[in-house]
Each structure stands twice: as C-alpha cells, then as structure tokens.
Amino acid sequence: MKLNKNFFNNIKKKEINFIIVDGITCSGKSLFANLLKKNLKNKFSDILIVSKDLFLYPREKRIRITRSLRKVKKNQNQIHYDLKKLKLLLEFLKGDKKEKLIIFKNLYNRKTGKNNLKIKFHFSKKRLIIFEGIYVNEDIKNIIKPILKILIIEKVYESLARKIERIRDKKISVQLVVTEFIKIHLESFKKYLSKNNFDISFEDLNRNFIIKRQGKAKQLEYIKKFLSKHRY
C-alpha cells in the first residue's frame, strides 16, 4: 500500500488540524486513514483518528430501518448515526468546551458488532485529527474547517462485495444488504456528492491509493452506471 508522500509535505502544524476522509461504504477510508497517519507521524507528534462508525446506532435498530425501506425518507446519515453525540465530540475536539476530557459510552464496536465501547477523548491543541467515515464533509459544516478534504474513490461492485463479506450473522440476509446498499446508501451518497466538494481524491487500486483528478465526477459516474443496471 502506497501514498504519494510529496503531497503531504505541505501540511503544516496549526493549533488544531483536521483532515477528513470521505467515500462510499467499504471504500477503504479506515485503511487510508491509518496509512495517512503512518505517513505523517514524523510531522505530528500527536495524531488521532476518529472513525465515524463509532457513532453508528445498534445493528438491531439499523436492521429495522432497512426492513421498513418504504417508510424511509431521510438519508443514511440521518437514520444510521447518532449525530447529536457525534456533534458533541467534534465541538469538544475543536475546543468549544472547557473540559479537557470527555467520555462516551455505548459506542459501536466494529469487531463485535455491538455498542459496547467506552472511549475517553482528551483535548490537545497541537493534535492532528483525521476524521474518517461517510458524509463527514457534511458533519463538519458550521463546526470546524478542515485543512484538507479527501474523497476516496472506489468501484461500486468492489464496495458491495466487501459489504457482503462483513455480514456477521443470519439476522440480515445478503438480499437485504444489497437492497439497503442500493436504495439507501447509493441514492443518498449520489445526492450528497452532488452538493459537496473535496480538495483531492484518491482511487483505491488494489489497495494502492492513487491521486485521481476529477475524482468526484468519477465516483458519480461509477454510482450512476451501477444504478442504471440495478435500480430497485
């Protein structure tokens, strides 16, 4: 896995630095964020990766939402994430709170699929924060101004294949995962991309991240092409 190191030489320390890493589900955002941290460890003594998946609602609740697709009118960001709790963390990391420590309970544990994580976050002015997840460009509006907005580009079929691989048990079928992916995720993300801009895009090519010009347009093209064949 490689990154173009020269691109990141221009990142300079400020009181608080934010980098967001956005992209469709299972596109490699977490992998990219960790690779980015590795590349920047010599420039920043303190780097914190915040995964938006920590703020997912419990799986049972998300499964119920998926099974009632006809009733869903909000986008995926609104129905799958505890945005109030996420906003509280972002305000804390920005320095809007007097407290230097904040504790969150019942966060989502990707390893177990349960909301059983308890995490302590400490405030630091000199920290670089990498915030990764879907719709994160929307989450930071009116809260923080990141120094860099990154979009990860991925072919839709590969993204869906990884999502199917992540099915944990028989509570949700492959068909239901595919339905959610098409009717909730792709439709929501297509509209989201149309309204949001990014500073740079990287395409995941066999787990090597290559800078992609007009990446947003390319991702929209991938999504539209997929939906033209598989729309429900």
Characterise the protein shown here.
With 232 residues, this protein is of the alpha/beta class. The chain has one domain: Rossmann fold. The protein has 8 helices and 8 strands; from the N terminus they run βαβαααβββαβααββα. The protein has helices spanning 29-40, 59-67, 76-80, 83-94, 136-139, 156-165, 174-195, 215-230; strands spanning 17-23, 47-51, 101-109, 114-122, 128-132, 148-153, 200-205, 208-212. The strands form 2 sheets. The chain has a 6-stranded mixed beta sheet with strand order 2-5-1-6-7-8, with helices on both faces. The model has no long low-confidence stretch (mean pLDDT 86).
Task: Give the SSE layout.
Blueprint: E1 17-23, H1 29-40, E2 47-51, H2 59-67, H3 76-80, H4 83-94, E3 101-109, E4 114-122, E5 128-132, H5 136-139, E6 148-153, H6 156-165, H7 174-195, E7 200-205, E8 208-212, H8 215-230
Parallel strand pairs: 1-5, 1-6, 2-5, 6-7
Antiparallel strand pairs: 3-4, 7-8
